[in-house]
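Hey all, quick one. A colleague (J.T.) asked me to put the pyridoxal-5'-phosphate job into the tracker so the inputs and the structure tokens live in one place instead of scattered across chat threads. No bug as far as I know, just bookkeeping. Sequence used:
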Amino acid sequence: MSIKQIVSNDSPVLSRADVPGKRHLFNQHNLAAFRQGIEQSLQLVSHRLAAVSQPFSGVLPQELAPAFAGIDLDQAVGDHAAVLAELATLYLDDAVYFHHPRYVAHLNCPVLLPAIMAELILSAVNSSLDTWDQSAGGTFIEQKLIDWTLGRIGLGPAADGVFTSGGTQSNLMALLLARDSHCARQTGGNVKLHGLPADFGRLRILCSSASHFSVQKSAALLGLGYDAVISVPCDAQQRMDSAALAQEIARCHADNLQPIAVVATAGTTDFGSIDPLTAIAALCRQHGIWLHVDAAYGGALLVSPQYRHWLAGIEQADSVTVDYHKSFFQPVSCSAFFARDRRHFAHVTCHADYLNPLSAAQEGTPNLVNKSLQTTRRFDALKLWLTLRSMGADEIGAMFDHVIELTRQAYATLRGDAALQFAAAPQLSTLVFRFVPQQALPDAVLDAANVYIRKAIFRSGQAVIAGTKVAGRQYLKFTLLNPETTLDDLLAIVGLIKHHGQHYLAGQRDAQAATAFSA
Ligand SMILES: *Cc1c(COP(=O)(O)O)cnc(C)c1O
């Protein structure tokens, strides 16, 4: 019987000649096209990079949207050059460039070259880190980085961890493990199997008023709701007040509520403040409460030659979040979650015959999916791996130390400026302040002026700064993560702030005069 006869219908036998998409597949037949595509992409990025004179074009959504309206995604443009030219106008011309020294808005970093090389390799090979049979060596690379970070934190021999998509997912994991281990200890209940206990309304999470909003978000996702989160007041430096925490714990117990976790932040998003970890750890130990340390931002202190001691106490945590895509200068995403006792990962373990059967675990096959909320998972670990193998840990730490020092110098220089009012002295690498001109003005006008300043600067594209509120009032924020930003850059941005602030107030005065005149 010939192959022809086996095929039941009249369709021709499939051969390699007519594989759809074959010119575009990553394999050994297409190496020339691969190289050409990479070179063209590299050229595009290089040209753009050479032309970047400010961090942003200033484009408004309504100005950019029409360019997308005419795009028909069903029709390929075809030729590489044309595809990339289109991408330049749709994306690269108006991208927000974090490598630019005057991008000082959010916790975005310029990225390291070894990590970009890793992106190319990991995307091309496309390992998926859920199971050994999809990643083999990749599994060990990730595990080795987890163990290395654990060693730096000092969580002890029973600890383990896993890479995640970011601090938000890490914090969710922390609170899930805290909730489920609390319920198991308290009532013997198994939340994974049976859901929340009947009295779940009594569960509480404590964090400071300056903690990240992913704590609230996690509480909602975990079926507890925002109401389960108790906001503990901060001291003047925006660090959790540990005496207030003790009071809140006592109040919980008096009200028959059950605190399942305290989230301490090592580097708050707005202020870079580090909660008093040792004092908080003592309280948690005393009351048997899970301590999670959110070091999404401050995690790089683990490799800091000068400031590692600022994290003292982190080794007493039950779990820790570290975002390598912030202070370790890694491309998004690169982040990890750690727990002191690896047995707690069982709360997220689920066995499937088609993927990670229990038998594989019993045979000792390292299937990382057993520790993760995700299934298919990027090999983000490779970025940190190539970075550490190329640069070593000290140089990354020195980069972070450098931006901390820059922040201090900027504060020392600017704090005497009568037109600026600082919310607090800096701790890691953020400065929170507002434009406050000489003349006495109502708070509402000051708030509006500072909102205006941020928008006007963004519109100009000359710099990108952030805004936030402190005690209900509008502030501006610099987040410094670029070691190439200089004091002069910051002074120039302050010049822009004053310029736009004065412009706004002048406009207000004119409007007032006009109203007075017409009245
Ligand atoms: C950024 C940040 C997070 C969230 O991390 P993502 O990676 O953005 O999900 C959580 N906590 C703190 C303190 C952060 O600064």
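Adding what we noticed when we looked at it: The chain has three domains: 3-95, 127-391, 394-518. The pocket of pyridoxal-5'-phosphate is lined by residues 107, 166-168, 171, 212, 214, 265, 267-269, 294, 296-297, 323, 335 (CB under 6 Å).
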